[in-house]
Specification:
Blueprint (H helix, E strand, L loop, with lengths): L16 H18 L35 E5 L4 E5 L4 H8 L4 E3 L10 H7 L6 H4 L6 E8 L4 E4 L6 H6 L8 E12 L3 E9 L2 H14 L1 E2 L2 E2 L2 E8 L2 E10 L14 H4 L13 E8 H5 L18 H4 L9 H14 L1 H8 L5 E11 L3 H11 L5 E6 L33 E11 L8 H12 L3 E2 L9 H7 L2 H11 L8 H5 L4
Helix pairs in contact: 6-12
Length: 494
């Protein structure tokens, strides 16, 4: 079958089948009951996309080995049943056969569907499709109490459905998720708009989010990159089935470098553009080959090294292994010490601020933090309930609330991502740069994701991430505290 088969002309595909999925669930439940009652319950997984350190444990973990497959795809209803530990790489490979894709595909191939829902995810469709958890129709969750429950927007576990996003496995783990899919075309036509002024970029971004168009052309994908206050870009993507030449950024060429161009001079009154085309597959994974731009830290962007760097190792999962080795053996700090430099503080964060504070935050960041480039990605909560969910009551609010990451409905936010390290300064507290970022993000009425280091005090953390709602959910679904609580996991790094 072609990469993009005709949706509706193929039967539902069963990659592992519901019978195999049930066997995987049985192994999961057996592993839960084998964990000593005094031990914390954790996943037994070898890889992670988290950047938080955590305490070592000798207790056995949950066996999720049977929960890594797409269970079924219904190309007519445009839905998929997916095991919780299925990677987006495998999910996309399956759905693209039918001309379908998840509504939001996070940037890195080994992010799992369950991980994106419990830990949030984002990408260039988020300005029109929200966040990954907003396209979930129902999910089976193994709770901290060892119960397997199905949560939907309106059943007896609706509180768990709403409170699960941003809980990071502290209420339970997804076993199966039923999600919406959307139709996609074979190619994405790209337009890279250059800006010399961040406030002009901010205004243009806000207008595109509202109109879903630019210069009379539909915009299906939208994100951006800031190299400096005088050089920033928005990349606009439009789905198309028109044949034509396509670029390949899995070899010697590097995607983020292709965005840059001279553009119009300041004051010309319009952003200058450069154009490109990718297959839908390569567009969805355009950032994975070089982990955005982070592969440069390993020399993978040096042409003399890249030529001999095996292509199968040009992917985020391999770079992450190199980072894990550095964390374990402090390789980077030892190299800095040889040069007479202090250790470096890891600054790996994604934050969200309201769109009207985008330029304010980025200007502050560029003045204070020696990290570039910076990624921008706009998002809005979805304005209507899931259209495929026929069980949604007539009086369901137009925008659902997600109390553990309380973004305002009908408001545009911009995710700002930055991933590097900065020199430490003698006498400053641990995490001084990260603490400063947290303070400024709060001043601009924003939030930050919890996949990396956090330094909030307990009261401030509770106010930002669910407060009493989280406490009530924890009591209902993990009364014996078999799972770590969110503050312990995100801030204390236990």
């Amino acid at each position: 079958m072609s990469l993009l088969g005709r949706a509706g002309h193929a039967p539902a595909v069963h990659e592992s089948g519901f019978a195999a999925h049930r066997a995987g669930v049985d192994r999961l439940l057996a592993s839960y009951h084998a964990i000593p009652a005094h031990a914390d319950v954790r996943l037994a997984k070898k890889t992670s996309n988290l950047f938080r350190a955590r305490a070592e444990t000798t207790a056995p973990g949950l066996d999720v080995s049977g929960l890594t497959q797409v269970i079924a795809v219904d190309p007519v209803a445009r839905t998929a049943d997916v095991a919780g530990m299925t990677t987006y790489e495998d999910l996309v490979a399956t759905t693209l056969r039918y001309g379908l894709a998840p509504l939001v595909v996070p940037q890195l191939k080994t992010i799992t569907l369950g991980g994106a829902v419990t830990g949030l995810g984002i990408e260039s469709t988020s300005f029109r499709n929200g966040l990954p958890h907003e396209s979930v129709l129902e999910m089976d969750v193994l709770t901290g109490a060892g119960e397997l429950v199905t949560a939907t927007p309106d059943n007896e576990h609706a509180d768990l459905f709403r409170g699960f996003p941003n809980s990071y496995g502290t209420l339970g783990y997804t076993v199966r998720l039923k999600i919406e899919l959307e139709r996609v075309q074979p190619y994405v036509a790209l337009r890279h708009l250059r800006f010399h002024d961040l406030r002009e970029l901010e205004a243009t971004l806000a207008a595109i989010v509202t109109d879903k168009t630019y210069a009379g052309e539909r915009v299906d994908y939208l994100d951006g990159v800031v190299f400096s206050a005088e050089e920033s870009y928005l990349t606009l993507g439009r789905q198309t089935d028109e044949p034509g030449p396509i670029s390949d950024y899995t070899g010697m060429d590097i995607f983020y470098q292709s965005i840059r161009h001279d553009g119009a001079a300041p004051g010309d009154g319009a952003a200058a553009a450069a154009y490109d085309r990718l297959t839908i597959h390569d567009y969805l994974w355009r950032w994975d080959t070089d982990w955005f731009w982070c592969s440069r830290a390993f020399g993978a962007q040096n042409p003399r090294i890249r030529r001999f760097w095996p292509k199968r190792y040009r992917r985020s999962s391999f770079y992450w292994k190199l980072v894990a080795l550095d964390h374990k053996y402090h390789i980077g700090d030892k190299l800095e010490a040889r040069k007479g430099n202090p250790p470096r503080e890891r600054v790996v964060q994604d934050i969200e601020v309201p769109v009207e504070h985008t330029a304010d935050f980025v200007e502050w960041f560029l003045r204070e933090i020696p990290i570039e480039p910076i990624w921008l990605c706009p998002l809005r909560l979805r304005e209507t309930p899931n259209p495929a969910d026929t069980r949604v009551a007539a009086d369901t609010p137009a925008v659902r609330s997600w109390p553990l990451y309380p973004l305002e409905p009908n408001r545009t936010y911009v995710n700002v991502g930055f991933w590097s390290a900065v020199p430490t300064v003698t006498g400053e507290p641990e995490g001084a740069t990260n603490r400063a970022i947290e303070r400024v993000v709060t001043e601009f009425h924003g939030h930050k994701s919890l996949y990396s280091d956090s330094f909030y005090e307990p009261d401030e953390f509770a106010a930002l991430y669910g407060g009493n709602t989280y406490t009530e959910l924890k009591q209902r679904y993990d009364p014996d505290q078999r799972l770590l609580d969110l503050y312990s996991k995100a801030v204390q790094r236990r």
